[in-house]
Amino acid sequence: MITKEMIIRINELYHKSKKEGLTEEEIHEQLVLRKAYVKEIRSRVKQKLDSIEFIDE
């Protein structure tokens, strides 16, 4: 599950990367957080699509 703190950290790392660059550790952290975020979004979309029922007229 993506927490508010994770989103805040993703945004912090993004802004830092644009201003001054990231260390190798921060780059790795950013990749891990982004993968978790994308995985969560995909899961939510899949869950929503799976719950759709088609009704013939």
UniProtKB/TrEMBL annotation:
Entry coiled-coil feature ranges: none
Query: Per the annotation, which location comes first and is thus the protein's main one?
Result: cytoplasm
Pfam families associated with the record: DUF896
Instruction: Write out the annotated subcellular location.
Output: Cytoplasm
A single GO CC term, please? cytoplasm
Record keywords: Cytoplasm
UniProt cross-references to SUPFAM superfamilies, sorted A to Z: YnzC-like
Report which superkingdom the organism of origin falls in. Bacteria
Tell me yes or no: is Hydrolase among this UniProt entry's keywords: no
Entry's family note: Belongs to the UPF0291 family.
State the protein's name. Answer: UPF0291 protein ACETAC_10225
Name the species this protein comes from.
Aceticella autotrophica
